[in-house]
Amino acid sequence: MVASYVAGAWAGLVELAVAGASLLSLVAFIVEEVVTSCISCTALYFFEFVSCTAFLFTLLLLILLATKLREKVGISCWPRLDFGYTAVIAFFFLVASIAFAANNGQTSLEQVAVVFGFLATLAFVVDAAMFVKSNGIPWKRDGKPETSNGNARLPTHETERLNMGPNGTE
Questions:
Q1: Which pLDDT tens digit goes with each residue over 59-82?
Q2: Given CB 3.0 to 4.6 Å as the disulfide criterion, which of 4, 29, 112, 125 pairs with 51?
Q3: Backbone region of residue 28 per phi and psi (left: phi > 0; alpha: psi in -120 to 50; beta: other values)
Q4: What is the DSSP string of the chain?
Q5: Tell me: the pLDDT tens digits for 9-39?
């Protein structure tokens, strides 16, 4: 009873981390969009691209993983995709936040956007760490069958013989 409660609570925390990361990236994007002028716009544009991409792709993954659409997409390595995406977006958010923190006009809006960028980075890192804690590293081979859309993938065997004649005879 306690184990199922803890597992349910952990799953809730993971979902909260993903939703929090998505929400923080949206807030970072909105605050950055309110900035009216920039001294060095390259860092601002890179931050804008990363924060918008992080929000939209995370929202897409949440929709796919929360609905039956994941079965229709045809992706067989959801854990790898989820972990890989989270780690990559955390890295890019960190780089974009550092670049924007170093090259901005020091206005309050830019500083708030940078803070939300770092908070979103932290949320993505926490999500990746929680994934590793609960599922392990997805590329590590530990003898368990890989999953395909949440179900264990069983090995398939060939049913047709290779040395068959034209009429099915040997």
A1: 888 888 788 887 887 777 888 888
A2: 29
A3: alpha
A4: -HHHHHHHHHHHHHHHHHHHHHHHHHHHHHHHHH----SSHHHHHHHHHHHHHHHHHHHHHHHHHHSTHHHHH--S-HHHHHHHHHHHHHHHHHHHHHHHHHSS---HHHHHHHHHHHHHHHHHHHHHHHHHHHH--TT---SPPPEETTEEPPPP---S-SS--TTS--
A5: 555 666 777 777 878 888 888 888 888 787 7
Whole-prediction pTM: 0.70
Instruction: Copy the structure tokens of residue 21.
Output: 């990361």
The residues that bridge with 151 in the sheet, in sequence order, are 148
